[in-house]
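Quick one, T. Sequence first:
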Amino acid sequence: MRVHSEDYVDAVRTGKPAQLAETQGFSWDPALWHMVLASNGGVVAAAHAALTGGVSGSLSSGLHHAKREHGSGFCTFNGLVIAAKKLLDEGAAQSVMILDLDAHCGGGTAELVNNDERIEHVDVSVSAFDRYTDTDNSRLRIVHDADDYLTTVRDMLNAAGQHSLCLYNAGMDPHEDCAIGGLNGITNDILAQREKLVFDWCRAHETPVAFVLVSGYIGSRLDQADLVAAHRLTIAEATRSHL
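Structure tokens:
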């Protein structure tokens, strides 16, 4: 409830009212509460681990569309903002950058960090879903041409400030074979270069980074093995940057 309303949290916990509990798009059952606690707790744990070890990550997803009063777009609670505000309130971090490279815009994150000068939200998307207008601490760029993707990511990183921690929403749904959000021309090679950009930037700025392996949708052109291979690009680069 540091981030979400009491009514919404209670709805997810109890299933009542069902209409509110299911605003993220999932049918409610009692296991949902425990699942989202574990997933969001994983982001918090990864953030703490990054501060001591430099690089960490969590198998957490379904975060950046969730708003204060309801879920959205398969996202129940916004673990990125929960982790950022928890570490800031504890004094473990003085400022946090949330870097969102999911295919879709992080409108939930933008709403939840608005007016919190301790948090900078940097968002590069390839889809207009959940788009929002830039604020003092949230900047969004939507890329329509794959040839501009890496340059835009690089420019946005170079314009970012210095922070105690980077929380990285490492979405793989920009991949051209992803049916929900993919952009033609964004291949595994492009995504591998993107991961190198991110982790090289964090290392150069001596910024601890905690990543979450989010997004990517199995379909006729992207099977489970392909999606796992894409997520392994993040893990491989995170490991290399930490050596």
